[in-house]
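Q: Entry one of two.
A:
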Amino acid sequence: MSIRTDVREGVATVTLERPEKLNALDLDDARELTATWRAFRADPEVRAAVVTGSGPKAFCTGIDRAAAVGGEIVQPPSPYAIEDPLLSIGPKANDLWIPVLAAVEGMACGGAFYLLSEAEFLIASEEAVFFDPHTTYGMVSAYEAIGMAQRMPFGEVARMALMGTAERISARRAYETGLVSEVTPVGGALEAALRCAAVLASYPPEAVQGTVRALWAAKEAVRAQAMAQAPQLIALGNLPPERQGELFTGRASRAGAGTPRVR
């Protein structure tokens, strides 16, 4: 299994364990994450959680392209429906209301935002970078951009979603724009997140979970309305699956996308 869970003193650490794939998720991983969050709902001993990636190179790089392009995900013919296995990998999608923190080392891109957008707050090391490659590959950034629009200023989300692989957001810039709440030295994100989670786990769980639920209630109506439009936008705007792996190297190199700019 590629999802490792460790519970100590009320805090669960959920680790994506595919460092050789930059912690990209295949379909089994997606199902296991769903099962993990649902199991926490029934476990009173778990009062807070931290989600992180294995190794220093990446938190998560989204869906494994072998699963997406290799035919494992079959899309319905209707533009009003979309088959997206990552829609259910986050804690809120599974009605889990314990606080969940994200500890980010290295790259966090694309489908990683399904997890990051459902965490209460993010802690990142100083070498972490955030970017969204969808448009570069001829794909619509819908669910990812909607999730990030709940956490970042509109212009910052628009720039990240539209610029694709040509630009990456540094941990420092993510902190300045409110996406990240704390920047640590390299290798320190998980320790800092666990320290915060231990504090949350020590408080009365009813009060903590009620506060989490109240925070999400403040924005869930707008989020739900936006998410409802995503399937048809994706169906209309995505290239056919067999073409989504194309990098458009000639066009990208002319635009200077060969060496992503970090800001």
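Q: Entry two of two.
A:
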Amino acid sequence: MSTADHDIPAAGPRTGLGTRLWAHRVDYLFLVPGLVIFGAFILWPMLASQYYSLLDWSGFDSRRIFVGLRNYRELLADEFFVAAFWRSVWFTLATVPLQMLLGLVLAVILNNRLLKLSAVFRTLIFLPVVTPVAVIAIVMALMLSPFNGPINDLITGAGLVQRAVDFLGSPQLVMWSLAGIYVWKWTGVTMIYWLAALQTVPDELYEAARLDGVTGRQVTMYVVMPIIAPFAVVIGLISAISALNVFPLIQATTQGGPFFASEVMEVFIFRTAFAPPSGTFPQLGYASAAGVLFGLAIMGLTILQVLAVRRTRRKEPGHG
């Protein structure tokens, strides 16, 4: 027997799962607070809403009637629900492409090392992201106000319009106005995503392009874009999921008005469950069914995001 054979320890008997858990019991104790929070604020509401969606229940009394899938059937025939659903889809399609394009342009500009004060510009662009939604809602309501709002003073003074425009009070303009506010607030996040993608471009490619006499625009179009293109799918899906969760902004600005013109899915669910029109009662079971359907839509986008990430990784060098 060689000396190397003596250096190999003999394999001991396998220990059971309970023994291994007990051996690391102190480590697992640190998971308990996170599991409690996850169960109380995520898992339990998800399971409870699925159960409530099968009930005819206002949420404020003990009378609960099991109705099965009736809430779901009524929702699909509810014109307010259908309108809110498609309004959410429209809002996503209107904001995500513009947000991605602006974020990409800003990222390419600010990624230039020759640009002075790029860190300052990044901070200024990212500042709306960390500003509370309530503050932005108040400021934007004042700026867009038809009564001496600075934006209306500017466009009327320049002769672009004859009279003040009610951006947040017009059913035809309110969603466009909210989309503009949303893009302005969240483009900084998309810019950060693109900046992270640009960091994957090797410096050697920039140097080789300069030696070949390639212009800056050509480097961006034919060198940088093909490398960061796979990230567009992931960034787009993340932005789409974020655009579907726009309740704080709309609730703080228009509360779904005027005349339900800005009521998206989350606002519809809140109104149905907690703030019904005068003369009607809350419908927690009905709202829970709407929440389940909305959650399934977001889950579908999340699954697409996971598949897109896996496909992007497979295309990277070194992956089969």
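A: Comment on entry two: The chain has two domains: 16-66, 75-315. Residues 8-12 have pLDDT under 50 and may be disordered.
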